[in-house]
Design a protein that fits this description.
homodimer, alpha/beta, 11 helices, binds zinc ion
């Protein structure tokens, strides 16, 4: 996949546009929502992502809980330009199981944060969401320990497809592996930040893995279906009292993963599988024809930037990460070059394709047509 | 089932000897153990029970955790007389999964108290017990809420037979009902005390059901496979600072249940099913040929008593319960008459029959042979 670029003899890697799973958009449902959404997709596109799967949560709680709130979010983002394709999820709350059905057709998944539910009758309450949600679409669960086990039980009882997001500890990953072995229809992701930051780096940041858990995550990557961006980068910024901006963590993703490739801990094919092929298949997302070209030796900071990521806080800023996204093509058209947007208007659209779950993944290669070998 | 006794024209009900599920024996593993065990089985026999399934817990924690401790308990009770048949379970601890296999042949079940396990890696830890325990014998789980869901998940993943003991809330019973509907091999019991006492009677006694939960238990008795005696009576005594004695709650069982029959809330067949047929089938217990005769109108206090139950504390003492066990026959021989033991030696033996789990219950009727119609 790595090729030597003749003009300047640096190593360029070509990847399909990645999927940003569990993308947090601050203030999604208020007046700041349109700008935050646009900014997030802009950061995402410039950072090598062609799809953002948006979290139905805000700092104020669940933002998308039914057809009405989903309609309101659509109205809000009408005032913005989407630079990537995107999809929304519906959040499960203690009282909205009966509102799920009408909302499900416009959402990619049901999103369940198990710790948002009262312990009393938690399992029975969430079971009504599993019963109401259509089998053809996945349930994404942010759940740990016995909550995770409860979600897996419900998935088993209701023959649901379940995707566990933001796994941060070894026991949870083992349980998921065990469930897979026993033929449960379960997949999972870990946040890229969780692979590179631990509680050892930030004592008290319980949302990060311990150093031991992080080691176990690395050692069992074969059980991990996807890497997500997730809420973790925003959560860390909040924990440290840093300013929160749109698209946190997104720009660090490719540089961090390519660093792991160059350290021999990942392959480029792992990145393609876990950030493109698998998320698209698992969430039933529409796949835009997109290609990104990354110079693995070039500093991200060397690019001009029209997006906020340059000014937004990152725990990796000081490390001056390499792995600059030099060019992004969508539908055979260069949309971002050297960090600058070269299109008249944003091309992103809502991309949900409700697919039946195939039993095997059909991996999409990064070179399948002339459009992807367009001259650089 | 009720017959009019010609001598005195009171209503006598004939039942098979009942099974005391989850029987707590105080100080089972120390010098007081032999006496406590003998006293417990004596109270049980005089109160209409022919089988005691003994809890592998003491106030000090788990008493039976491996073949060695099971052997020690057998040595301790050699110094006592067993008045009923009995069986032991092995307790699951955080470190004994590898010791289960050798102990399993002499035990009726594996007993898991989920709240004894550390939350960190609880599910994975307990999964090793499910993996190690032979499929032919049940796993008895004392687990609530998400812990219960975790146990049900493990039962599903390992094709285990699971019996949930001491259900006290509506949500847990609903979850069990849902699991049954989805073909999980799960059964459950509720403690008789939980049917008659609530947190409204004893504020702060969180181990009792709330009044609402108790109402739901009564309304869903068709989902309840067994009634147990359990630890609840001892727990209540401890909570109230009353003296703890052997066999707490046992003597109250038949009077309480017959009161419910006379109130139209239960049938005698419910008692036979939930305290004889089902426990025997579920735990694979040996069924001794036993018959008890109960006068439903006669006060328990009217019987002479050679056992401690007369002096032991009960929350129902003041109510002067009716439903005296007038006669107990074992193997066609009267062993207890009007509260007095009329046998030279105790007849109880260890009764475990490792049976394959039949898919349907074959109910044993209370009148199946001439031995059970022996003249009164
Ligand atoms: Zn806001
Ligand atoms: Zn693609
Ligand atoms: Zn293509
Ligand atoms: Zn370059
Ligand atoms: Zn003791
Ligand atoms: Zn019997
Ligand atoms: Zn018989
Ligand atoms: Zn009588």
């Amino acid at each position: 996949v790595g090729t030597v670029d003749s003009q300047s003899s640096h190593t360029t890697i070509e990847l399909p546009g990645l999927v940003a799973l569990s993308t947090f958009v601050p203030h999604l449902d208020d007046t700041a929502g349109a700008d935050a959404f646009e900014e997030t997709t802009k950061v995402a596109l410039a950072s090598g992502f062609s799809f953002a799967s948006v979290l139905p949560y805000d700092f104020s709680g669940a933002t998308i809980t039914d057809a009405r709130s989903l309609g309101r979010i659509h109205e809000i983002i009408q005032d913005s330009s989407a630079y990537t394709d995107y999809s929304f999820s519906v959040a499960a709350t203690e009282s909205n199981s009966e509102m799920l059905q009408p909302a499900s057709s416009s959402a990619s998944s049901l999103f369940v944060r198990a710790d948002e539910f009262n312990d009393k009758d938690k399992v029975i309450n969430i079971s009504s969401h599993f019963a109401a949600w259509p089998e053809s679409k996945p349930i994404v669960a942010d759940a740990k320990k016995t909550d995770l086990a409860s979600m897996l039980l419900l998935a088993s009882l209701f023959n649901s497809r379940i995707h566990v997001t933001n796994v941060t500890n070894a026991g949870d990953l083992s349980l998921i592996a065990m469930a897979k072995e026993k033929q449960l229809d379960v997949t999972c992701d870990i946040s890229v930040y969780a692979l590179f930051l631990s509680q050892e780096d930030y004592p008290g940041a319980m949302f990060l893995p311990t150093k031991d858990d992080q080691k176990a995550l690395w050692e069992n990557l074969d059980q991990v279906d996807c890497f997500s961006v997730g809420f973790l980068p925003t959560q860390l910024a909040g924990f440290l009292g840093k300013p929160i901006s749109a698209g946190m963590g997104i720009a660090d993703t490719i540089p961090l993963l390519l660093q792991a490739v160059s350290d021999g801990k990942l392959t480029v094919q792992d990145i393609v599988a876990k950030m493109h092929d698998n998320p698209i298949e698992i969430l039933g997302l529409g796949d835009v024809d997109s290609v990104i070209e990354v110079d693995e030796d070039r500093r991200v900071a060397s690019l001009k930037s029209q997006v906020g990521s340059a000014s937004s806080w990152s725990p990796f800023q000081a490390k001056d990460l390499k792995g600059a996204v030099e060019r992004v093509l969508m539908n055979d058209q260069t949309v971002c070059l050297e960090g600058e947007f070269v299109i008249k208007e944003a091309l992103g659209k809502e991309g949900i394709i409700s697919v039946q779950h195939p039993s095997t993944l059909v991996p999409e290669t990064t070179n399948q047509g002339p459009s992807e070998t367009a001259p650089v």
